[in-house]
Design brief:
The longest helix has 16 residues. Strands 1-4-3-2-5-6 form a six-stranded parallel sheet, sandwiched between helices. The chain is built from ten helices and nine strands. The chain is globular, with a radius of gyration of 19 Å.
Length: about 280
């Protein structure tokens, strides 16, 4: 069995990647891993002779009022999970390694970053696009794996790769859920017992809208309202029925659409989505 290498500097990571040779799959994460992350690792291992994961809580994708400081971290546990999952390389840099003094570059993706999460979290996707571009350049993967859970992020990364001609194939894998439907998230850890008990309503509401779509409903506002009706008592940042590629809000659904929402339970913000069609 190959043993897993853990690298913390860009130079070490580049050397380890060069030593490995061949196609590499990359699973970028912010750590505090769960079965959603591990499903991406499994998919990468099925597709590639070797797999790298990155663990980096990227400060530039958090706004000053967000949860950067309290974002959960447990590197030893994460490394144990990644080793057991058969990962070959882990890149786990400190912020100063990724953003040394004098760092002053931003990758901005237009259009699809202005809406939904981007509207509520200005600058978030510039932080994501910049760090993912850096990780692709450092790790040089043939393929990179992202979760449908963060649907808009996947759209942004696909656009990043297309617009900048990055030689990476983007693979988006299905959302992994708890038995009660709640999408796995490192942020579920913040929920009180009461909030955790309420949280499955998010997936229930999205599923109810999808059931109506599957039964023939094509009016987007009817579906948005169905979702809101299922989430009375939640504070909703947005409820969206948008074109799955452009993320523009729809009146009528005529092509694949994305039903997505962001809800706040106390101080915890949860997002989820389902594809329609
Ligand atoms: P994060 O650590 O939250 O930045 O997530 C790292 C990657 O795992 C992203 O591509 C996420 O979309 C993906 N991911 C997070 N939660 C899930 C989930 N429940 N199912 C599938 N993928 C997920």
């Amino acid at each position: 069995m190959r043993s897993m290498k853990v690298l913390t500097t860009v130079a070490e990571m580049r050397a380890a990647r060069a030593e490995l040779g061949g196609d590499l799959g990359l699973v970028p994460t912010m750590g505090y891993l769960h079965e959603g992350h591990l499903s991406l690792v499994a998919r990468s291992r099925a597709d590639n002779p070797a797999t790298a994961a990155t663990i980096f809580v990227n400060p530039t994708q958090f706004a000053p009022n967000e949860d950067l400081a309290r974002y959960p971290r447990d590197l030893p546990r994460d490394l144990g999970l990644l080793e057991a999952a058969g990962v070959d390389l882990v890149f786990a840099p400190q912020p100063a390694e990724m953003y040394p003094p004098g760092f002053d570059a931003t990758v901005t993706i237009g259009g699809v970053t202005d809406v939904l999460e981007g509207a509520v979290r200005p600058g978030h996707f510039a932080g994501v696009a910049t760090v993912v571009a850096k990780l692709f350049n450092i790790v040089q993967p043939a393929r990179a794996y992202f979760g449908q859970k963060d649907a808009q992020q996947s759209v942004v990364i696909r656009k990043l790769v297309r617009d900048l001609n990055l030689p990476v194939q983007v693979v988006v894998a299905p959302t992994v859920r708890e038995p009660d439907g709640l999408a796995l998230s490192s942020r579920n850890n913040y929920l009180t017992a009461e909030q955790r008990a309420a949280a499955p309503a998010i997936h229930r509401a999205l599923s109810a809208a999808k059931a109506r779509f599957d039964a023939g409903e094509r009016d987007a506002e009817t579906l948005r309202q169905a979702i809101r009706d299922g989430l009375a008592g939640f504070t909703l940042d947005y409820v969206s029925i948008a074109d799955a590629d452009t993320l523009r809000e729809l009146d009528r659904i005529e092509a694949p659409a994305l039903a997505s929402l962001a809800a706040r339970l106390g101080t915890t913000r949860l997002i989820d989505n389902l594809l329609l069609g």
